[in-house]
Amino acid sequence: MNIDESNVGVLRGTSCTLSPCSETVPTSDQHKDEFIETMSDESLEETEEETGNEYVEVEMRSWKILYFLNPNNIKIQPDDDVIVEVDRGQDIGKVMHTSLRGKEYDEMHKQGKVLSIIRATTESDIASMEELEERERLATEKFLDTVVRYPFEMKWLDTVYQFDGNRVTFFFSADGRIDFREFVRELSRLFKTRIELHQSTGRDEAKKLGGYGMCGNQYCCSTFMKRFNQVTIKMAKDQNLSGNLSKISGPCGRLLCCLHFEEDFYAELAKDFPEIGDEINWQGRKMYVYRNDFYAETICLTSDSQEILNISLTQYKDLKRKK
Fold it and tell me: Where in the chain are the domains?
């Protein structure tokens, strides 16, 4: 099979793709989508109220969350499987929410073109999925047999076929970025369909594989979390947690997601407490705030002579009032 070099995707970010054929045909729908993306949130809300359009949030088998229109008012509810339009054919996903408004619009517009739900899954679709899972198993075996002939190391995570078979995505993890162009060419010749290699992060891997955290519960990312939030070391300091990264990091090697969940709570409590390092004149002695205990409502002070003293939050407030 002859492959046009112009169709080879260059690795940028985390994915590399190759299609046996590639064409781009501008349509009036594309121009309409570009116009919609330039509308303000206020205008978009007004348009929705006039047309009655509601956007449906769908989680694809690749764990990606996308948004779709339901122009035919198909009766669906959360956890239903649906067949949806995608850029190159049809795919299957699970309904997360059936009516999105307000803040979700920002996330919706990040995906660009908004397509439609075609139908709820049928018994025939379920039978097709069983066949697709067998194709994925065979594709995984071929993938692993092929990758050993290349001079790079990678950890295979998952293989996902698009519902109509027009694309197969291989998820993997690897140290650093690698140029997979030659590898993708061979996979394209082998499978004769559009190939996508997706390099996953440690968080993505934990989400896909699942497991139990140090708290004894299943990973938040593989149960209820839809998106990863930014977690910083400052959040750990705000919550008086140890500076030992191994104790505040998850199996993915990143800071625990629950630090983000509780940040607002601790930020609200901290409003009544002094900042770490603040100077306080306590009974004629110059002291510095060393630590705040939000639950015990105490403030730990230290002096230049390394003297340590605990005072209550009430005592601190009384001291502030006397100033």
Answer: 7-17+129-200, 39-121, 215-266, 273-322
Cα distance between residue 95 and residue 82, in whole Å: 7
| pLDDT tens series, the chain, 323 aa | 444 433 333 333 345 555 444 333 334 444 444 433 333 344 444 444 433 457 888 989 888 888 898 888 899 999 999 999 998 899 999 998 887 665 555 565 665 677 899 999 999 999 999 999 999 999 999 999 999 988 888 889 899 999 999 999 999 988 877 778 889 999 999 999 999 998 888 888 888 888 898 888 899 888 888 778 889 888 888 888 876 788 889 888 889 999 998 899 888 888 889 988 898 888 888 899 988 988 889 999 998 888 899 999 999 888 888 76
